[in-house]
Amino acid sequence: MRHISGETGEQRTHLDQAFLELGERPEFILAELAEMTAARICSGASNRIDSSLLVEWTEDVVQKHVDRALARTQTALRDAVEGLREIAIEIKPVRDASPG
Q: Within 10 A of 39 (CB to CB), how many other CB atoms are there?
C-alpha cells in the first residue's frame, strides 16, 4: 500500500517536471517546430510559413507534450486504483473472518 501511495504522490512531481521542462527547455518545442517547417518547405507546399500557422503548430506541439504527461499520470493512477482494489480484495476475507 505504501508503494501505491508513493507512486500516486510522485505523479504531481512528474507533472511539475513536465511543465517545468516546457518552460525552461523550449529547445524541444523549437526543434519540433523547425522539423515541421523544414518538412513543409521540402514538400514544396510552401516556402513561407505565416505567423498564424506557426502559432497553430506551437499550440499543437505544446498540447501534445502536455497530453503525454497527463496520459502517463492517468496510467499510473489507474494502476494505483487497480492495486488498491486488489489489496481490498485481499483484506476483505480477513475482515469477514474476524469476530465481531
A: 10
Q: What does 11-22 look like in DSSP terms, one character per residue?
A: HHHHHHHHHHHH
DSSP 48: -
Task: Tell me which amino acid residue 62 is.
Answer: V
Query: What backbone torsions phi and psi does residue 46 show, to the nearest 5 degrees?
Result: -170, 145
> Does residue 100 register a pLDDT over 60?
no
Residue type, 97: A
Residue 5 has, within 13 A of its CA and on its CB side, a CA count of: 3
- CA dihedral (60, 65, 68, 69) positive or negative: negative
Residue 6 one-letter amino acid = G
Residues belonging to the chain: 100
List of residues 6+ apart from 29 with CB closer than 8 A? 22, 58, 61, 62, 65
For range 50-76, the mean pLDDT: 89
Whole-model pTM over 0.70: no
